[in-house]
Amino acid sequence: MKELLEQINSYYPLSEETAEALLNICTEEKYCKNDLLQEAGAAARYYYFIKSGLIGYYTMDEQGNSVYKIFFEEKSFVASTAAVIKDKPSEFNIIALEDCSVIKYPAKAFRELINQYHDLALFHIHYLEKNWVVKKEPLEISLKHETAKQRYLQLQENKSLYDRLKQHHIASYLGITPTQLSRIKKEIN
């Protein structure tokens, strides 16, 4: 649980009392490659912190193809956040793309702790601001204004993530077919 607290404290430091209360609702879980942590259409009941492994966040298009929105590596927090906040079923699947070890904590209990512990609420605010506003905005702009080739080149810059993704994941994330991805790769080389 040390990694979880280190990551939280990088956003906002927790008191010992708050950390203890948080750790009391946490459990460690293992997921095998292709296991779903969250299924679309089901209530979003948990937040996850990735200790090891790679996780994908996707929905299905009209043809039944997976459309990846984002990928999460170690030291990332993952949840169907909008579904938790709205208390509605998730629109996304969250899947283990590799064998994963995560720390899992119930969204309802976490939200109760946020109301009780000011420092935990500040962590949550700082986390949401950085990851759901500051980091997300350029991604949304790139989806509207950049070509698949430009977005592919940006993805390649994150070598640790890029090297772990399968080609069909990359194509899905870019919103193109694997054949189109092959053409882009050939053009670049």
TrEMBL record:
Residues 10-114 form the Cyclic nucleotide-binding domain. SUPFAM superfamilies: cAMP-binding domain-like. It comes from the Bacteria. PROSITE patterns: CNMP_BINDING_3. CDD domains: CAP_ED (cd00038). Transmembrane segments: none annotated. This is CRP-like cAMP-binding protein. It comes from Chryseobacterium lathyri.
